[in-house]
UniProtKB/TrEMBL annotation:
Pfam families linked: Abhydrolase_3
Catalytic site: S184
Name of this chain's protein: Alpha/beta hydrolase fold-3 domain-containing protein
Record's keyword annotation contains Signal: yes
Ranges for domain Alpha/beta hydrolase fold-3: 97-314
Keywords: Signal
Entry GO MF terms: hydrolase activity
Signal peptide: 1-21
Gene from which this protein is expressed: ga15612
Keyword Signal: yes
Residue spans crossing the bilayer: none
């Protein structure tokens, strides 16, 4: 109960930052950046988010049998997470999945209905202890804030499991089966964290077994098949997300610029890349898979494609045959020896 009371001010702060003060916009306040359908930023500093601001409470989910609860990771930076524990636990420990939500780095959270539903379903089907990370959003906190917050969350998972400070992670989690996953921007985060883990190492000698990149948010200059008209828009929005700190051909956005030696440092044993046929980002996603396969990286890379669907369709079409088939692929990827 004390932890929930402590978390409440942070959730309220998150909601205030995400939703903005709708009544605070002054007459004549000009638009500074229109990032529809996600948000609009005004010259007064007001950020009006147009989606991804609803939240649902942690709970015991009757449909999946999964129980969730919220934790504070870094109160100074409002970094929090929602943990998920499946009901069909055995004496054996379960894989630990650290998940990063999407939303173009500017909307959504670990507490929105679509991510709560998705993580309930994934935790139940894969039998994992899942940690859904709530990182700070741009433009109030431009990149690299999301990367730094997510790295802090990964370190928290490792330390909490080792020290016994989180009962679910320490009692049920198997850090020898540690996985990262994320959709869209979250997939971008998962890749960049795996790269950092390979370069810097993880606390206690921990290793990431696998990374699932679900329709990941990668962009760049000219992969085969990319829409030329989209490239200019992509460069503008990327600059908005990072406050101009990194060009669109920076490795954060475009891993294709990495030399083979950097790909070889990717700190995991296997990678799954999913692609939706109608996703405008699909050229970069396929090129990512090809570059990883051709880099000399010693791990196993898999590509899974869904025909006829758009970007991260599986979040809003969770019960459809296509979404269920894709989740089955992710579950098999996690549970394969």
């Amino acid at each position: 109960m004390a932890a929930r009371i402590l978390l409440l001010p942070l959730l309220l702060s998150l909601l205030a930052s995400q939703c903005g003060a709708a009544g605070s916009r002054r007459a004549g306040d000009a638009v500074k950046f229109d990032f529809s359908p996600f948000l609009i930023e005004y010259r007064s500093g007001l950020v009006k988010r147009l989606m991804g601001t609803d939240v649902v409470a942690a709970s015991a989910d009757p449909r999946t049998g999964v129980t969730s609860r919220d934790v504070v990771i870094d109160s100074a930076n409002n970094v929090t997470a929602r943990l998920y524990l499946p009901s069909f636990r055995s004496s054996a420990r379960s894989p630990v999945l650290v998940y990063f939500h999407g939303g173009a780095f500017v909307v959504e959270s670990a507490f929105t209905p679509i991510y709560h539903a998705y993580l309930n379903a994934l935790a139940a089907r894969a039998g994992v202890v899942a940690v859904s990370v709530n990182y700070r959003l741009a433009p109030e906190h431009p990149l690299p804030a999301a990367y730094d917050d997510s790295w802090s969350a990964l370190k928290w998972v490792l330390s909490s499991a080792a020290a016994g400070s989180d009962p679910w992670l320490s009692r049920y989690g198997d850090l020898d089966r540690l996985f990262l996953a994320g959709d869209s921007a979250g997939g971008n985060i998962a890749h960049n964290l795996a790269l950092r883990a390979g370069q810097e190492g993880l606390d206690g000698g921990a290793r990431i077994k696998g990374v699932a990149l679900l329709d990941p948010y990668f962009q760049g200059r000219s992969p085969v098949g990319a829409d030329p008209g989209y490239l200019q828009s992509a460069a503008r929005t990327w600059s908005f997300i990072c406050a101009g700190r990194y060009p669109i051909n920076h490795p954060y956005a475009d891993p294709l610029v990495l030399p083979a030696a950097s790909w070889q440092q990717l700190g995991c044993s296997r990678v799954l890349v999913t692609v939706s046929e109608r996703d405008r980002l699909s050229p970069w996603q396929r090129a990512y898979y090809a570059a990883l396969k051709g880099s000399g990286w010693p791990g196993q890379a898999e590509l899974y494609e869904t025909p006829g669907e758009g970007h991260v369709y599986f979040l809003t079409k969770l019960g459809t045959p296509q979404a269920l088939a894709e989740m089955a692929k992710v579950v098999a990827f996690i549970n394969r020896d």
